[in-house]
Design brief:
This protein is of the alpha/beta class. The chain has two domains: 1-32, no CATH class; 33-177, 3-Layer(aba) Sandwich (Rossmann fold), CATH 3.40.50. Helix content is 29%, strand content 25%. The chain is built from five helices and nine strands; from the N terminus they run H-E-E-E-H-E-H-E-E-E-E-H-E-H. The strands form two sheets. A seven-stranded parallel β-sheet has the order 5-6-4-7-8-3-9, sandwiched between helices. Strands 1-2 form a two-stranded antiparallel ribbon. A hairpin with a 7-residue loop joins strand 1 and strand 2. The longest helix has 17 residues, at 147-163. It is globular. One of its GO terms (molecular function) is DNA-directed DNA polymerase activity. It comes from Caldithrix abyssi. This is DNA polymerase III subunit chi. Pfam families: DNA_pol3_chi.
């Protein structure tokens, strides 16, 4: 079977490239695309919906970073994760402590340059595409309730699509919350 047929048979979720320099032998190396979910928000309740998404990821075993550019929003999310559901507790922190022996499952931060320590990132605010490669799963928002925010969401979606290294999926919030995520976390080793 020619190599291009093998590459095409792998499926849409993977891309391949040729490695090795042995004459006459070409190996195909599979690289998993980063899964990006764009969540349709039809009402302006992003903080609450971020908590719903964090809970979903946490319950499925993902460690999560939530990125926001605003420290006051970070503290609002911190308070919400303690109080938004009486029966729910999601261990989280707002600081990275390199001397700590324990890692919280969820990190809330406004720092763009983070060490690789979580499986997924929830973008309360957008990050540039080059900051997303350290994560296995990315959740972004399509804020359809506001025309200007929706336009920015569309631009981010198109930019990620054009890069070609991301597998994009657009879902309503309820669809995402009911979905069994196909990408399972791989724990980091020190």
């Amino acid at each position: 079977m020619p190599l291009h047929d093998v590459s095409e048979s792998i499926g849409r979720n993977k891309r391949s490239f040729h490695a090795g320099f042995t004459p006459g032998i070409r190996e195909t190396v599979l690289v998993q695309k980063i899964k990006v979910y764009f969540i349709d928000l039809s009402i302006s309740n992003k903080t609450r919906h971020t908590c719903d998404i964090v809970e979903k990821l946490y319950e499925q075993g993902f460690s999560v970073t939530v990125f926001t550019k605003d420290s006051s929003q970070k503290h609002t999310l911190d308070r919400m994760l303690w109080t938004w559901k009486q029966e729910s507790f999601i261990p989280h922190t707002t600081e990275i402590d390199p001397d700590s022996d324990t890692d919280e499952a969820v990190l809330l931060t406004e720092q763009e340059d983070l060490p690789v320590r979580t499986d997924a990132v929830v973008l309360y605010d957008p990050l540039p595409p080059e900051k997303l490669h350290k994560y296995q799963l990315v959740v972004d928002f399509a804020e359809v309730y506001d025309k200007a925010r929706l336009q920015k969401s569309r631009q981010r979606f198109k930019q990620l699509r054009d890069i070609g290294e991301f597998e994009l999926e657009y879902l309503k919030l309820g669809e995402f919350l009911g979905k069994e995520l196909a990408y399972h976390p791989v724990k980091q080793t020190s």
